[in-house]
Amino acid sequence: MPIKFENVNYEYPTEDKSVVAVKGVTLEIEDGSFVCVCGENGSGKSTLAKLMNGLLAPTSGVVTVDGRSTATEEETELFAIRQKVGMVFQNPDNQMIASIIEDEIAFGPENLGVPREEIGERIDYALSAVGMTEYRYNTPYKLSGGQKQRIAIAAVLAMKPEVLVLDESTAMLDPKGRAEVIKVAEELNKQGITIVLITHFMEEATRADRVIVMNGGSVVMDGTPAEIFRKREEIERYDLELPVADAIAAALIGEGLPLEDRIYSASELAEAICRSK
Amino acid sequence: MSIEVKDLSYVYSPGTPYAATALDHVDLTVSEGDFVGIIGKTGSGKSTFIQHLNALIRLQSGSIKVYDIDLTEKKPDLKRLRGTVGMVMQYPEYQLFDETVEKDVSYGPKNLGLSEEEIKGRVREAINLVGLDYEDVRDRSPFELSGGQKRRVAIAGVIAMRPRILILDEPTAGLDPRGKKEILALVKRLKETSSPTVIIISHDMDAVAENCDKVALFSGGKIEKVGAPREIFYDDELLLRAEMDVPTVVKIVKEMEKKGVTLGEKPVTRSEFLASVKRWRNG
User: Fold this and answer.
1) Do the chains contact at A40 and B277, CB–CB below 8 Å?
2) pLDDT at position A256
3) Interval A234-276: pLDDT, tens
4) Would you state the pLDDT for residue A1?
5) Which residues of A touch B281 (CB under 8 A)?
6) Residues A247, B270: C-beta atoms closer than 8 Å
7) For residue A159, what are the contacts with CB-CB under 8 A and spacing of at least 6?
8) Shortest Cα–Cα distance, A39 to chain B (Å)
């Protein structure tokens, strides 16, 4: 069981009062799963992400990664946790440190003390996993947003993580860039890497095998995409938005069309409408 | 006619080995009251184009007229131009800089050389228009507000100039669904109250279909086509060539056609689609 939250609270200290960002969260992220955490801004979803690899330590409660608490004072322990649970952030421009992509990817393993020959192999693996092999000797600055995020993912992959946390990594991308990043996440998940995708785009949640909805710091919904999407009123109450095809399906059901109550892609919905007459 | 662009071309770093054509003989006419959606892949010339409209980029070749301001003149009245064309850039909240919300929003009108009293009135009006409480936020630092609120302060700074034309480059990028809804509702409200002509750049085809009455599709520095949303989003050959996505509604209609069902109409918005399906079922 790589990540486990037990009654976790997190408060951000501010000048006059502290703000509770995560409240009483207990959950487990299972090995090899694809988990999507949704929620509006300020719902606590990014704080939850940062608690997963000890970037933040809980104010109370315990977060463990493979049984080790993230609240450890031991640096080596913390490094081991962060090597297991890699994280990619929102802004593609704020994460690059090297001027050549190869060096960017090598940075993590070099710091782990990986032998030179193996670093070469890891760069090969990481770049091919995100489909960016041909860019190895290029500079990251001229890449599109989606490509930059794929490089950021590759830099994490070079550390051989077991879990990849994407903290709103698609929020600033155009639709093409978003699709690229999601595709890479799906591929990696098939290879056995656990994916935790933090997002406010619910259509990205259709690919997950589990959806967790956060609101006001608490987990308010937890289930398969089908279970979650069916509760339309509840989703709207948390200021989230159903994918457009689902919203249309809901409106059609409201008008008396005999559609099944489930998740629809555009083509599935088209088929169901055609059959309805 | 509020904007008339003729034969506009632009080359970045001209005369160097890095010369890159960003705009290639572009024509576009925008009438007062239009809600124009500019769409196209990243790098297709959209941002370069709109930056020409308030002379953030100076004219290299072709002509641009904004009402009676002629940008081909040697010294066009840029102050008047920028009071006429309000530009909200991508992630405008990154451009907030002043200590208080009131000071930040005042910056534009101050540069127009208005009286203190006039500035104060406009700032109060702009802040209220974007849906914030003037008394509540005026003395607060813009940096302690939420992301959606910051963006609204940035937009207030632009509309305090009372532009007749409002241009927004991806106004909903990076916002959560609530923020997105709020900003789109705000743009509609501004169009009805203070800025009758609106131009938005967007990658969100559903939002373009729901809001715009005119769409200009950019590809490789050219405008491939200008027309009503249904003229653009049902032009399969064009969309394929420009590698453009279509609104969800159009996707569903196309899939239905593949299965042999033709609605006989070309809906692009959700409500048009629901009405079409209703007529088809009753027909």
Assistant:
1) no
2) 87
3) 998 998 988 888 889 989 988 888 888 777 888 889 999 998 8
4) 60
5) 257, 276-277
6) yes
7) A83, A86, A108, A109, A112
8) 8
CATH 1.10.1040.10 fits domain B1-76+200-244 = no
Question: A16 — contact with chain B (CB < 8 Å)?
Answer: no
Closest CA to B212 of B221, B223, B201: B201
Give chain A's domain count: 1
Under 8 Å between Cβ of B167 and B88: yes
Terminal CA-to-CA distance of chain A, rounded, Å?
49
Q: Which residue in B176, B248, B253 is closest to A200 by CB distance?
A: B176
Contact B29/B1 with Cβ under 8 angstroms?
yes
Tens-digit pLDDT profile for residues B214-244: 999 999 999 999 999 999 999 999 999 998 9
The strand ranges marked E within chain A are: 3-12, 19-29, 34-38, 60-65, 68-69, 85-88, 163-167, 194-199, 210-215, 218-223
Residue A200 confidence (pLDDT): 86
Query: Minimum mean pLDDT among A262-266, B35-39, B57-61, B229-233: which range?
Result: A262-266
Nearest chain B residue to A199 by CA distance is B176
DSSP letter assigned to residue A277: -
- Strand ranges (E), B207-266: 214-219, 222-227
Q: Which residue of B has its CA nearest to A271?
A: B256
Give dist(CA A77, CA B175) in Å, integer. 36
| Residue B43 CB contacts under 8 Å (≥ 6 apart), including other chains | none
Q: Which of B32, B40, B8, B18 is nearest to B238 (CA)?
A: B40
Residue A256 tokens, joined:
């008396």
Per-residue pLDDT reduced to its tens digit, A150-172: 999 999 999 999 999 999 999 88
Range of the domain at A120: 3-224
Assign residue A68 the CATH number of its domain.
Answer: 3.40.50.300
Low-confidence ranges of chain A (pLDDT < 70): 1, 15-16
Tokens of B276: 């079409």
Over residues B176-193, the pLDDT tens digits come to: 888 888 889 999 999 998
Question: For A172, which residue in chain B has the nearest alpha carbon?
Answer: B174
Structural domain includes residue A164: yes
**Between the CA of residue B134 and those of B95, B122, B137, B140, B186, what are the distances in Å?**
20, 11, 5, 10, 16
Chain A, window 17-56: residues with a beta carbon less than 8 angstroms from a chain B beta carbon:
40-42
Q: Parse chain B into domains and list their residue ranges.
A: 1-76+200-244, 247-283
State how far the Cα of A268 lies from the Cα of B250, in Å rounded to an integer: 14
Q: Is the ipTM of this complex over 0.90?
A: no
